[in-house]
Amino acid sequence: YSLMDQYAARFPTLASTFSVGKSVQGSDLKVIRITLGANAGAVPGRPLFKYIGSMHGNEVVGRQVLIYLIQHLLDNYGFDDEVSRLVNATDIYIMPGMNPDGFAVSTPDACGEIRGRNNHNGYDLNRNFPDQFTGQFGIVQPEVRAVMNWIQSKQFVLLANLHGGSLVASYPFDDSSIGMSTYSESPDDDIFRSLAMTYSTNHPFMHLNNADCVAYEPSFSNGITNGAEWYSVPGGMQDFNYLRSNDFEITVELSCCKYPPASALEGEWSSNKAPLMAYLARVHSGIKGFVRDATTGVGLLGAEIKVVGRAHVVRTTNLGEYWRLLLPGTYNLTVSSPGYYSRSAFN
């Protein structure tokens, strides 16, 4: 994590670091914020995006490619038009390692080893979030509590959670009402499929579905899958984000090998650089705007943005901002806030 602090010191107008909490053993859950004016407050109208890696401590490719991404964004700002445009227009948050205790005890150069997957208390962090069907599994762990608080303290728009052990982009829902493998469709299934395709099609191999990571793995058409159709995951972060916040999340399995040798990591960055950048850019798709009091012009907190025909509500920030991911098309919107008349737009 000293590298993150070093980069924040080198680029004080573009980067700052902070911790959202502590692991069981007291390690910081470190985040770097990258945006123009990173040491200032939020910029009105600038959407919040985040990447999280190594939720399972033994799955290290995500951790490393996010470190490479941090370097890429900061080293190339002002020289690369795509980088400069995204850093200027996006409030980017990157947490390379959500499970530092697990990472610390993981076995290097071990593709299938499970040591380090769970946190120090033996909990799988991706089974520890409140679940829509089964409720809470076990005691909420410090790492999960910290990330839940972070999720609900800021109104993120888009996230990808990076894992390892396969090569596929998985989208909600991750669990099913029957607790078994079956397609579990969210109200925004078309958007999630498109987001997953953005990652897989920009990856040189993922969309080809020829990784054959394990013999019993199903076929992933175009390198994407509905999470629950692959296998049901109760208590996952992906569904929590979608159901409890404005944040749309997919889970990306980056490599067959969970902890490859160091010599393989630069190649993993080469494969994931384009999809990481393309997916980040998707935070700017859909519609956005402000909801304000017509008399005072003050932004309204918690106003509800509803797309007719979609059972998923997005709420405004304390500045009245909203971002609603949508595919190109024609939609009817309704905006409502307590104490105000609702307003509809038919397009």
Care to describe what's here?
This protein has helices at residues 2-10, 61-75, 81-89, 100-105, 142-153, 189-202, 227-230, 237-244, 265-281, and strands at 15-22, 28-34, 48-53, 91-95, 158-163, 168-171, 224-226, 248-253, 287-290, 304-307, 313-315, 321-324, 332-336, 343-346. With 347 residues, it is of the alpha/beta class. The strands form three sheets. It has an eight-stranded mixed sheet, with helices on both faces. It has a four-stranded antiparallel sheet with strand order 11-10-13-14, with no helix packed on it. Strands 9-12 form a two-stranded antiparallel sheet. A hairpin with a 6-residue loop joins strand 13 (332-336) and strand 14. The protein is globular and about 60 Å long. The model has no long low-confidence stretch (mean pLDDT 94).
